[in-house]
Structures are given as structure tokens and as C-alpha cells.
Automatic annotation (TrEMBL):
InterPro entries cross-referenced by the UniProt entry: Arsenate_reductase-like, Nase-assoc, Thioredoxin-like_sf
NCBIfam families reported in the protein's UniProt record: nitro_assoc
Name by which UniProt lists this protein: Nitrogenase-associated protein
Name of one Pfam family that matches: ArsC
PROSITE patterns assigned: ARSC (PS51353)
Family the UniProt entry places it in: Belongs to the ArsC family.
Length: 139
């Protein structure tokens, strides 16, 4: 099984479910605090691969939800600068296994990449299960 470096927002229920699923599949999860990591554009960019810039963003971030940040109108440099300044904007989790990096937790993609040991759960594993809830508590 894989050693997964897992950049999370501490206290996030969604990230807790994702880590538990990885551990149940036999992976070793090495959790790191996404919000306190000293990101640069160069260290952050590889996690997004060839995804469109708008897909790099955490849609539940208050600045995105209230329209202050409009991911669809940003180019790569603007998006990376905003995320380095405000890591809460980053789609999470960020995961690294070996030299490969990815963002988000799309179960089909994670299963194809490192395996989820017995199938993909039917429940939603990415994003907040209750979008009507206030933001997760700060760590």
C-alpha cells in the first residue's frame, strides 16, 4: 500500500472521512496542515496537473461562496497568488504519493490511482456534506 502525504484543514469532517477511507484501504496517511504549509506558486502548482484553473478552488471557501473570489475569471498566476496568500481557497485535500500529486478526493480517480480496497463508497466523499452548515472551525 501507499504512503499518502495528505494536506488537510485540521478539524474538517470531510477530510477526516477521506483519511479514514484511505486507512481502511491499507494506506498510511501522513497528515499535514494545508493552512500552515509555507506554500509557493512552485510548490503548489504540481498538485493541479492539467485541471482547469477553476477546478483548483475550494468551492466552500467563504470568499468563493460570497463572490469575492471568482475562480472562473482567474488565470493560473492569479489563482496561485491568491491561494498562496489565502490557503483556505485551495481545493482539498492535496495528496502526494511518491512524485505524483493531486487535488480533491474524487473517489473513482483515487481508486484508480492508489486503490481504495474493495470499492468506491456510494456516499459523497468530497466537499462538505451539509452546505447549509457554517464553515468548519478554525484549527
Amino acid at each position: 500500500m501507499a504512503d499518502v502525504i495528505f494536506f488537510e484543514k485540521p478539524g474538517c469532517g470531510g477530510n477526516a472521512r477521506q483519511k479514514a477511507l484511505l486507512e481502511q484501504a491499507g494506506h498510511r496517511v501522513i497528515a499535514r496542515d494545508l493552512l500552515s504549509e509555507p506554500w509557493t506558486a512552485e510548490t503548489l502548482r504540481p498538485f493541479f496537473g492539467d485541471r482547469p484553473v477553476a477546478d483548483w478552488f475550494n468551492r466552500a471557501a467563504p470568499a468563493v461562496k460570497n463572490g469575492e473570489v471568482a475562480p472562473e475569471s482567474m488565470d493560473e498566476a492569479e489563482a496561485l497568488a491568491a491561494m498562496v496568500e489565502r490557503p483556505l481557497l485551495i481545493r482539498r485535500p492535496l495528496m502526494q504519493v511518491g512524485d505524483r500529486r493531486d487535488c480533491g478526493f474524487e473517489t473513482d480517480l483515487v481508486d484508480a490511482w492508489i486503490g481504495l480496497g474493495g470499492g468506491v463508497p456510494a456516499q459523497k466523499m468530497e466537499g462538505c456534506l451539509r452546505p447549509d452548515m457554517p464553515p468548519c472551525p478554525k484549527p
